[in-house]
Task: inverse folding
């Protein structure tokens, strides 16, 4: 398993490459060290691998959702029940076109208010594999605010999975060290982006006439209230 450390935390193992994901390229300096990590992660995802990475909420597992073998492996790594669908991350709204049937005016209002950010929206899916949708016919998608994630998705050229890096039903994972302790060699790459202290993303179903809150998360319910049919208890 390849391991890349990013940031200032202690290496997972000795002699791990240290790359600052969030280093901005100074004028006159050729090359951004983050591009090395992005290129390696994109290569692994394109080859059907599993990458554990920091998101703008928690640590997650990224695979190519169009690769059936990679999606199947993702389920195995997470020990995820078949009835649980897989959510996706996109780099821009244009990526929605091939994955969803309809974007309602209500969904657009939520996107305008909270994207990019930690709001995952459940849309009516296009013709997608049942393994992704768990047979529901819907797909959960989020546009993240983290520049690294956006650049990685752009490098892959399509959405990536956004499922959390924990074992199914287990505690959320907030660091690369926790990912390594939990999953070890089950993944192909671990990117260490430091501690992620956030909650999971907020989940809202926009398949009906009025959006409905499905899961509480980072975004406070009071902020969502004007857009919802009713808050969940």
Result:
């Amino acid at each position: 398993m390849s391991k890349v450390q990013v940031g200032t935390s202690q290496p997972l193992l000795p002699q791990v490459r240290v790359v600052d994901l969030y280093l901005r390229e100074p004028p006159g300096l050729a090359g951004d060290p983050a591009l090395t990590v992005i290129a390696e992660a994109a290569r692994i995802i394109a080859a059907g691998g599993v990458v554990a990475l920091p998101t703008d909420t928690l640590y997650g597992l990224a695979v190519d959702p169009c690769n059936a073998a990679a999606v199947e492996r993702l389920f195995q790594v997470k020990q995820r029940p078949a009835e649980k669908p897989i959510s996706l991350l996109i780099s821009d709204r244009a990526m929605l076109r091939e994955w969803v049937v309809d974007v309602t005016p209500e969904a657009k209002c939520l996107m305008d208010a909270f994207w990019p950010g930690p709001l995952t929206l459940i849309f009516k899916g296009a013709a997608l594999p049942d393994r992704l949708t768990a047979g529901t016919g819907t797909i959960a998608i989020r546009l993240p605010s983290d520049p690294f994630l956006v650049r990685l998705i752009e490098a892959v050229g399509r959405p990536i999975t956004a499922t959390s890096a924990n074992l199914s039903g287990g505690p959320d994972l907030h660091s690369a060290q926790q990912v390594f302790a939990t999953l070890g060699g089950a993944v192909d790459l671990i990117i260490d982006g430091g501690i992620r202290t956030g909650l999971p993303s907020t989940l809202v179903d926009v398949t009906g006439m009025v959006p409905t809150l499905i899961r509480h998360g980072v975004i406070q319910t009071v902020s969502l209230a004007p857009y919802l049919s009713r808050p969940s208890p």
